[in-house]
C-alpha cells in the first residue's frame, strides 16, 4: 500500500483543532514556511526542561529534520513493516495520524499532542514524495 493510498481523502483542516488552524493560518499569512510552522509546534516542547526516569533534568533537543527522517522510516522502511500493518486497519486519517504521532512521541520522548500537528502538516509532503523516493535516497 502506498502512502497516497494510506491517506486517501486526506484533509488537514478537519484534523486540526480550531486553535491549531488559527496558528497555522496566521503564520502562513505572515509568510512562514511549512518548516517554520512545524518548528513553532516543536518549540513548545523543546524549550521546557523535563525530568527523566533517573530524576535528572534533561533538555530535549529534537529537530524537524530528525522528525521527518523518522516519519519517513516509519512510513517506508522495512524496519517498521509490522507496525505499519496496524496502520492499514485504521479507518480514518485521524486514527492514522494519532498512531503515527504516538510512535514518534515515544521515539523522541515528546508528548504525542506536540508531535500531532507536525505529522498532520508533513503528510501531504510525504504523499507527494512517496516511499520510492525515500528508498532511492537512503
Q: Any overview of this molecule?
A:
- This protein has 138 residues and is mainly alpha-helical.
- 70% of the residues lie in helices and 4% in strands.
- The protein has 8 helices and 2 strands, in the order H-H-H-H-E-E-H-H-H-H.
- It has a two-stranded antiparallel sheet.
- The model is unreliable at 47-59 (pLDDT under 50).
User: What is the string of SSEs from the N terminus onward?
Assistant: HHHHEEHHHH
Radius of gyration: 15 Å
> How far is it from the N-terminal to the C-terminal residue, by CA?
20 Å
Helix content: 55-70%
Q: Characterize the biggest β-sheet.
A: 2 strands, antiparallel
Question: How many β-strand runs?
Answer: 2
Structural class: mainly alpha
> What is the 3D form?
globular
Going across the major beta sheet, what is the strand order? 1-2
Q: Which regions have little confidence, pLDDT < 50, spanning 5+ residues?
A: 47-59
> Taking all residues together, what is the mean pLDDT?
82
The total of helices stands at: 8
The fraction of residues in strands falls at under 5%
Amino acid at each position: 500500500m502506498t502512502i497516497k493510498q494510506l491517506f486517501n481523502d486526506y484533509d488537514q483542516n478537519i484534523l486540526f483543532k480550531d486553535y491549531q488552524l488559527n496558528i497555522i493560518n496566521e503564520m502562513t499569512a505572515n509568510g512562514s514556511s511549512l518548516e517554520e510552522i512545524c518548528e513553532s509546534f516543536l518549540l513548545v516542547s523543546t524549550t521546557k526542561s523535563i525530568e527523566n526516569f533517573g530524576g535528572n533534568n534533561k533538555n530535549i533537543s529534537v529537530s524537524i529534520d530528525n522528525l521527518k527522517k523518522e516519519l519517513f522510516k516509519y512510513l517506508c522502511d522495512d524496519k517498521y513493516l509490522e507496525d505499519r500493518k496496524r496502520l492499514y486497519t485504521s479507518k480514518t486519517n485521524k486514527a492514522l495520524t494519532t498512531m503515527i504521532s504516538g510512535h514518534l512521541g515515544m521515539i523522541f520522548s515528546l508528548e504525542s499532542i506536540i508531535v500531532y500537528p507536525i505529522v498532520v502538516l508533513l503528510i501531504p509532503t510525504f504523499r507527494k514524495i512517496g516511499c520510492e523516493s525515500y528508498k532511492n535516497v537512503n
